[in-house]
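Data availability (excerpt). The following record was deposited with the supplementary files.
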Amino acid sequence: MPILAIESTCDETAAAVVVDGFDVRSNVVATQVELHARYRGVVPEIASRAHIENILPVLHESFATAKIAPDDLDAIAVAYRPGLIGSLLIGVTAAKSLAWALGKPLIGVDHVQAHLYSVVLETNAHPPMPAVGLVCSGGHTALYHLQSFTEVRLIGSTLDDAVGEAYDKVAAILGLGYPGGPFIDALAAEGSPTAIKFPRTLLKRRSLDFSFSGLKTAVLYHVRGYQGRERPPGSVTDIERRDIAASFQAACVDVIVEKLRRAVSETGARSVVIGGGVSANRGLRAAMAHFPLPVYFPPFPYCTDNAAMSAGLAHLFFQERRFSGLDLDAVTYSALRDSAISPGTHI
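Predicted structure:
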């Protein structure tokens, strides 16, 4: 059962063909990192224009790599929420056009929900349910209670910065590149995680929410002095930079692990599923190796935004006959923020 999916929620234009929900035949991603690096963040209008330029070449390459003809597809899937509205519209329009032209079912997929499903790709993993899910990236840091990959309920989220966003901002403070996650992860491996006692914000005793803004500010004050008045930005040595990166990462990881422990205790989960760009972080993976439950991470190519995860999740919706109409709209927020609503109409 081959399904094509399109991804354009933010700054990656992607298309993938996945068979039977896990067998990835193609996974093509056109990145925009160089376009946005000078701004240290995604510029929505630049992202939208790049999607327009990239969408057709990415689709052609995806079909060629998968060695499959469009008529052989069983369905067309698209990540239609959440994301930047201009970016979403490009992918949704392309998916609807293909579905109409080929006479194939259209399946709308929630991008955040697809990140949770990404642990299944290539591995055909079957995490014991119920599970606790964590999506951690530049745009999302949230905990979910999974009865299955199609029954997902939000149980905790960030009150301010997403953890990946905090990584980007700390990387900017340290004069590193964009996106910040890979740079800090690499530096952290060379520094001491106990060199600096950065705060661990855990909120109330049973809270499952996150807050990384205070940690980011603590790094800023450590590097530049209070309100940036005591130390020039360029005075940090390479050794200090490594220790700051390691200590910052240790604080992030400690908070995430503690929140996962709380979520497991609250829900009685039998496993943990982690997706999103920060799931590639070596510090987080090393810490979770000692977690008391089975922990599932995506293969590295599927940690960051991609279309394969949407195609895989769409396989489950196809089996349940959950299809979307050609009136499918791009939506900037995730339904998972409030409820376990699944995309499409059950017919």
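Summary of structural features: The CA atoms of residues 119 and 298 lie 4 Å apart.
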